[in-house]
Amino acid sequence: LKMSWLCFYLPLHFLMVAFLCHSIKAPTTSSQQSFKTDLFNFYHSLILADGKETTIHLLKDIPRRYYFVLEEGRVLAPFSITVTPCDVPIEWSILVYKPSPNFPEKATQGDHDTQEVPKSQKAPGMVFTIFNYKGNSVETYMGMSSHSALYLLEFLSTERDTHITVYLTTDTTSGHLYPELPTDPRIDVIGVGPTTVTLTWKHSPSVLQHRESIQYCLLVNEKHNYKSLCAAETAIRSSGMKLPPTLALSLSPYLLEPQQVMILSNSELSIINKVSSGEVRQVCMGTKNTYTVPHLSPSTQYYFDVFIVNLLTNASAAYTGTFARTLEEPEPKVTELKDGKVIHVVLDGKKQKFYSLQYQARHKKIQFTFQLCQGQVRVQITRNGKTVASENLSGLRYFSLKGKLLDTYLVQLRSTEESNSSVKVEASPHFHKPLFPLLPESLKIKSFSKLRTCRSVTIAWLGTQEESKYCVYRRRIEEDQIWRELQSADRCSGPESRPKSEKVLCKYFYDLNLQRAVTTETIKGLEAGTFYLFDIYLFGPSGIPVRYHSKVVKTRKKC
């Protein structure tokens, strides 16, 4: 008996042996055998760190056990345990070992012996289950003990291998590891559009106390809500995505994977993960508690989760997630096309919306003409709901179609790049009266390097079998402006927008033999070692110009 009592008061790292001391002396009844099993579980457990978040990996159907001991001598010993499942639901429980009250107390001062206790009263102690839970929610147990006790935590995953985080603290007065949620932790949806959803939520008390180290992070996805930040990260990884360890601390460009896109706008940093189940969007917006999520798809249900993150401890708490369905895209405005009338359409590349034109045929044969002015444009033409043409435009393009009287044609245009694009469109049944001039095989301008001098350059271009007017313009340009000028050139703009000082000459020519339908011009009066931008405009019977591809030539520096 003396040995048994001494074992209970051994230091912490010998405590497991102490319990075995009790079990060895206990009678081998069925109840005592059960108790020895519980002590065996204690003995094969790890110590759970106090005041630190611990990540625990669980294998399917294999329990993991951790223990901790409350300090001896405290009148009341408070403690709390927070368990965060990072994937599937788990089972976890808290057990406590308490020595039998029949064990003698310590002797009075000066007496190191213990009073004998009859054998019938000897009992090694009891193990009680004080808490158990099954699910995937973040759960916190808060307890208070009035005596020294040893606690065992047991964790089990029955679905698949997973991991969890566990936080134990016996110091409940010096603050919290996790940011504090407001009394009402719900997220409110205050606005919904076809491509946007506006959210708001009540401020966390932690924001008011530690504004510099606290921030809100929003997660948007199309599957479901997540009850913790680590659950969201695990789900993204399981989709084949390598995600940096923590949302709040992983917003550095060098950490991004090829499937991730980072967007920095108005001091807000977003990461978009391209996963098989759709986009998973992460946005950290500092301490703002209202946010409008942009660039969503119409008529789509999205799930929104807000996490309050402590940047110093890397710990987070989750608001109650919400969801919303974006509105349907309104029917695009349809512009009516009239015979022989040219419409200039400017397309917004950022919105990627279709621009629709409708034409009702008054003849069986119809010709659509498209002149690409800027950017890249895709066109789709349908007749009575059936697609008859679809392609990316380049330069000047004609579509000759044959149908029935009063057929309805719908022309849809959209930019295929993020910058704005523009195109001119015309529909007409009059094939014999083309709106645009007859074009040569190539609209390129050629320069002759050997004919360059310090004061002149010689250029050449192709003509057609139809007599047409050609006007040449030139402009001095700096070397660092060349690329931007060539990329942004409006191929539909005419010479009327240019200063008269840039005009070099206008001439008429043609040749029935296309092999000889070429002309040259030597442009004089130039400065040595200077870049010049040359443009040529071709005018047809209708007066609508077609612009050749701009050409940059540099005069010789020394002659």
From TrEMBL:
SMART domains: FN3. It comes from the Eukaryota. It is found in: Secreted. This is Protein NDNF. The keyword Kinase does not apply. Keywords: Glycoprotein, Neurogenesis, Repeat, Secreted, Signal. The keyword Signal applies. Residues 179-316, 437-545 form the Fibronectin type-III domain. PANTHER family: NEURON-DERIVED NEUROTROPHIC FACTOR, PROTEIN NDNF. One of its GO terms (molecular function) is heparin binding. Residues 1-26 form the signal peptide. InterPro entries: FN3_dom, FN3_sf, Ig-like_fold, NDNF, NDNF_C, NDNF_Fn(III)_1, NDNF_N. One of its GO terms (biological process) is nervous system development. Secretory protein that plays a role in various cellular processes. Acts as a chemorepellent acting on gonadotropin-releasing hormone (GnRH) expressing neurons regulating their migration to the hypothalamus. Also promotes neuron migration, growth and survival as well as neurite outgrowth and is involved in the development of the olfactory system. May also act through the regulation of growth factors activity and downstream signaling. Also regulates extracellular matrix assembly and cell adhesiveness. It comes from Climacteris rufus (rufous treecreeper). SUPFAM superfamilies: Fibronectin type III (SSF49265). GO terms for cellular component: extracellular region. Pfam families: NDNF, NDNF_C, NDNF_N.
